[in-house]
Amino acid sequence: MPACRPVRGPGVKLPSSLAHERVLGARAIPPALPASNLMAQKGTLVVGQSGGPTAVINRTLVGIVESALAAEHAVDQILGLRHGVEGLLAGDFVDLRRQTPSFLPDLRETPSSVLGSCRYKLQDDDLDPALAALERVEARYFLYIGGNDSADTTHRLAAAARADGYDLRCIGVPKTVDNDLVVTDHCPGYGSAARFVAHATMEAARDTEAMRRGDPVKILEVAGRHAGWLAAAATLGRRSEEEGPHLVYLAERPVTPDEVLADVDAAFRAYGHAVVVLSENQPDPSGVVLGAADGPRYVDPFGHRYYDSPAAFLARAIVAQLGLRARFEKPGALQRMSIPYRSETDAAEAEAVGCTAVRLALDGATDLMVVLNRDSDDPYRCTPGTAPLEAIANRQRLLPDDYIDTAGRGTTEAFRRYAMPLLGAPLPRHARLLP
């Protein structure tokens, strides 16, 4: 089986604010895990994708399939789940060995989730049917690519299999553009989405600067649920005070609509235009998402709430109360799975965690998630490790205080040191006219 190579690039130090999270359960993977007396038993490998697709989640699937193909001594069938655990409960499998010769090379450049995804919360009554479906295909290895909700699903299947005496090795494989998994230094998917947001903000800033006489205010609303990692990435392309974004609101720092209006007015007076970035669930001090006093418009099976656009609400308020024309942009799904903005560092790490997950399963591990440990500053070097699924499931890592500036409207140099290597390549430098 091919070895998972460390990813190298520009150096960065692991922030002290994350150091304690590694103690919660993350471990480096030794050169060779102890052999299991069950390793000789051949079985089926089942893999699924869950949650919001990313630009690199299919690269993780490539790492899994290629590693499984190379392990003919232990892996018989390689079955993909159509639409995650919903496909498992429906018995909807696809044979990943029977694809065309170009499938894996093409998959490396394919956005979104080729197997299909879901946001289904496994119920207690689902556990027995799920295990029965896995036993019918003689599954010995279950790998699930996703975030903290998927970690919960994988952990529960591992616990149920253990209680039933079913030798099923369950490994969680990380993915989320929100970058909010605990223990791991960062999540596959984040680097590419962060690169998209940084580029989009730079481009929106140039456009707003050019169009300031007619459209002086622009608001970008980015993903992230209740963590500000993606909104923070908007600051990475800003090289001078007059360049946008002038205001970046982070979910970790509640703000009132009146404060936003005052900030926009001050930025407009200082620069002649204002570029604003905020998280999709930006709260006010009472915890209510801006412009969502009537509550969420949708709640998913995991209890995650989805609200009307706070950017649209703020744009209307700016027009009505400041008399400034304001436009808003909401990249939506494009920010999380756009291939042209993909970070090659992110892609390489995504493939590495897939390869590592197969290795762990073959060596007898179960009820673990692969994590990424940042090993060195210069050059940037990150290697896979492991953490118990239970330590990750249903938990959320917020942006640390030392990454947020004192005004709560931007980020610090510590965040830049953390995030820049994950983008995979330098951001462009736009031309500026001399005065």
Explain the layout of strands and helices.
Elements: E1 7-9, H1 16-23, E2 27-28, E3 43-49, H2 57-69, E4 75-81, H3 84-90, E5 93-95, H4 103-107, H5 127-136, E6 139-146, H6 148-164, E7 169-174, H7 190-210, E8 217-222, H8 229-233, E9 247-249, H9 257-271, E10 274-279, E11 298-299, E12 305-306, H10 310-322, E13 326-329, H11 334-337, H12 344-362, E14 368-376, E15 380-388, H13 389-392, H14 413-419
Parallel strand pairs: 3-4, 3-6, 6-7, 7-14, 8-10, 8-13, 9-10
Antiparallel strand pairs: 1-15, 2-15, 4-5, 11-12, 14-15
Helix pairs in contact: 2-12, 3-5, 5-6, 9-10
A few lines on this structure:
34% of the residues lie in helices and 18% in strands. With 435 residues, the protein is α/β, with parallel strands linked by helices.
The number of E-state strands comes to 15
- Low-pLDDT windows of residues: 1-25, 30-40
CATH architecture of the largest domain: 3-Layer(aba) Sandwich
Strand/helix succession: EHEEHEHEHHEHEHEHEHEEEHEHHEEHH
Domain count: the total is 2
What radius of gyration results from the CA coordinates? 22 Å
CATH-assigned fold name of the largest domain:
Rossmann fold
Q: Which percent bin holds the helix content?
A: 25-40%
Number of helices: 14
The major beta sheet can be summarized as: 9 strands, mixed
Through-space gap between termini: 59 Å
Shape summary: elongated
Name the beta content range: 15-25%
What is the CATH class name of the largest domain?
A: Alpha Beta
Helix and strand content put the structural class at alpha/beta
